Amino acid sequence: MNITKLLDAKGLACPMPIVKTKKAINDLESGQILEIHTTDKGAKNDLAAWAKSGGHELLKYEEEKDILKFWIKKG
């Protein structure tokens, strides 16, 4: 996977991971991929719903220790 940008949102509580993700994805071109790292457990549902509602694609999600990692392709 060719990552365009990495967003470190670890330690931020809701709604900040979504706010930061929205800002970061606005800087990308359509088709580029944003990788997000967060420790907010609520982000799992929030980011999936946000990506879908914004016309973006959640490509992958994984959990590594206490860090949730997401890969979102800009629509």
UniProtKB/TrEMBL annotation:
| Database matches in InterPro entries | TusA-like (IPR001455), TusA-like_sf (IPR036868)
One Pfam family here: TusA
Q: Which organism is it from?
A: Bacillus xiapuensis
Q: Quote the Gene3D superfamilies the UniProt record gives.
A: TusA-like domain (3.30.110.40)
| PROSITE patterns documented for this protein | UPF0033
Put simply, this protein is called Sulfurtransferase TusA family protein
Record's PANTHER family?
SULFUR CARRIER PROTEIN YEDF-RELATED
Q: Which residues form the UPF0033 domain?
A: 7-31
What stretches pass through the bilayer?
none
Name the family. Answer: Belongs to the sulfur carrier protein TusA family.
